[in-house]
Specification:
The protein is of the alpha+beta class and 342 residues long. It has two domains: 271 residues, Beta Polymerase, domain 2; 56 residues, Methane Monooxygenase Hydroxylase, Chain G, domain 1. 61% of the residues lie in helices and 14% in strands. It contains ten helices and seven strands. It is rod-shaped, with a radius of gyration of 34 Å. The chain starts with a strand and ends in a 5-residue tail after the last helix.
């Protein structure tokens, strides 16, 4: 599907693909901006836009296609920026964040949040977003530019800065959700010894690691664009990229804290598990200690020698039972007094 927006004179106009193809990129007036959004495009749509109207190299198209074949395997291309003679090519990581269902468990909701690769091509008058997943930041920035025409006048470099900023805001939103889930896990660790918590913690640890890696890569992109040395980013707009860099730094710090929190929870889990195991072993040791003299007494009188003196005694059995009960009670009292039961 191809969505084409033209921003001019404070208004937003929806164009057809035929109208776009009849308008060469180098003939677009300087006071206009064209935004072409390729969402799950067909081969023909892709060829018309990215080969005929806005020609890109086969290597760029190959990188853009990487998310199509290997998205579910987590093999998207890492974020990067490349500058060519006619345009900039950016790959950023975005998130597909669905609506949370009523009373949906946070763990289930987090599993429905997935990562996505957003490919961006831009020059002085054109922005092309290319994606295979329903990345919400594209529509949100388009709505912002439509609602505030003065922002659209700032050009594609401003629009792309807002796109990248929106992706890092989504990353922070996810980080807060993960933090809430980790707090829930901490409460469960202190109450029970659920063995599934380890796998849950490992999953969140990997989640945080991948999110942080994407944020760091995108921070490097914004650092490059914030210098104002790119031909496609005006020095006035480079200020916005520096602001986006600050947002990435805060996101990276937040994710670092989450990583430390996950490691701390894993240490807490193993510590609590070890303490519970020690408690069980202590109780078992007390029980074994109590039965040790009982075993000695019963084994002693279990010997089948004919001339043992107590074998013919009428009160022998009650006496042995009384001795066993007395020894057991004394040992249990001693263990309780020493605090061996915790």
């Amino acid at each position: 599907m191809v969505t084409i927006l033209r921003f001019r004179n404070g208004e937003t106009e929806l164009l057809s693909l035929e109208e776009l193809l009849a308008m060469p990129p180098d003939q677009i007036p300087t006071d206009e901006m064209i935004w072409v959004d390729l969402f799950q495009p067909t081969h023909e749509e892709e060829h018309q836009v990215l080969k005929e109207w806005f020609p890109i190299s086969d290597l760029e198209l190959s990188d853009a296609h990487r998310s199509r074949s290997s998205f579910r395997k987590g093999m998207q291309h890492f974020p990067k920026v490349e500058e060519f003679d006619t345009h900039l090519f950016l790959i950023v990581r975005a998130a597909v964040i669905p609506e949370r269902k009523h009373n949906e468990v946070l763990t289930t909701y987090l599993t429905r949040i997935t990562g996505a690769q957003l490919n961006i091509f831009m020059n002085h008058r054109v922005v092309i977003t290319h994606r295979w997943d329903d990345v919400g930041v594209v529509e949100s920035i388009q709505r912002m530019l439509t609602a505030t025409p003065k922002f659209a006048l700032r050009g594609p470099d401003f629009a792309v800065a807002q796109l990248i900023d929106a992706t890092v805001n989504d990353a922070l939103r996810i980080a807060h959700l993960v933090e809430d889930r980790l707090e829930e896990i901490e409460e469960v660790i202190l109450r029970t010894d659920d063995h599934q918590l380890v796998s849950s913690l490992m999953m969140h640890r990997r989640y945080v690691f991948l999110l942080r890696r994407a944020v760091i890569y995108q921070q490097e992109i914004c650092v490059k664009l914030s210098t104002g040395e790119s031909d496609f980013v005006d020095k006035d707009e480079a200020v916005y990229y520096r602001d986006v860099v600050d947002h990435h730094v805060r996101a990276a710090d937040q994710l670092d804290l989450l990583r430390v929190m996950v490691d701390g929870l894993m240490d807490l889990y193993f510590s609590m598990t070890s303490n519970r195991l020690n408690q069980v072993m202590r109780v078992l040791t007390v029980i074994s200690t109590v039965f040790l003299p009982i075993t000695f007494v019963t084994s002693w009188y279990g010997m089948n020698f004919h001339h043992m003196p107590e074998l013919g005694w009428a009160w022998g059995y009650p006496a042995v039972i009384s001795v066993i009960a007395t020894i057991s009670l004394l040992m249990l009292f001693h263990a309780k007094r020493r605090g061996w039961f915790g």
